[in-house]
Amino acid sequence: MAVGADDEEGRKALLGPHRRQLGQLPGGGAAHRPGDALLGDPEQGDAVRCSDYAAEQLKAIGVRAAGRGEAVPDVETLLDVVVAPLMYRILFRPSDLSAAYAGHLVAAALGRTTPPPIT
Predict the structure, then answer these.
(1) What is the C-alpha to C-alpha distance for residues 16 and 12, in angstroms, rounded to an integer?
(2) Contact present, 94 and 114 (Cβ < 8 Å)
(3) Nearest Cα to Cα of residue 83 among 113, 109, 49
(4) pLDDT in tens, 58-91
């Protein structure tokens, strides 16, 4: 079944029994509707706010690190190399998420190593 960006019933059908579980997640915004964010929420409000918030937090962390004389990757690199893989694991493979994995992603973003292969 093809699901259009404005097809609420299609999104509900595609997410099926998981929709209720996703709605029970703590927090706000896109955390309540990750399936909608992935399928293309026509208003994009929550997903955009979440993305903007993450980027602002990364910028603030970067400013502090630069103030200490540390190397700081650009925000897009951090989103692609750290945030995106973490979000994927949170949504689809939470059992594979660990502090060691997150640390490895940060090291990769800083150019200290390569990211782990997806297994």
Answers:
(1) 6
(2) no
(3) 109
(4) 999 999 999 999 989 999 999 999 999 999 999 9
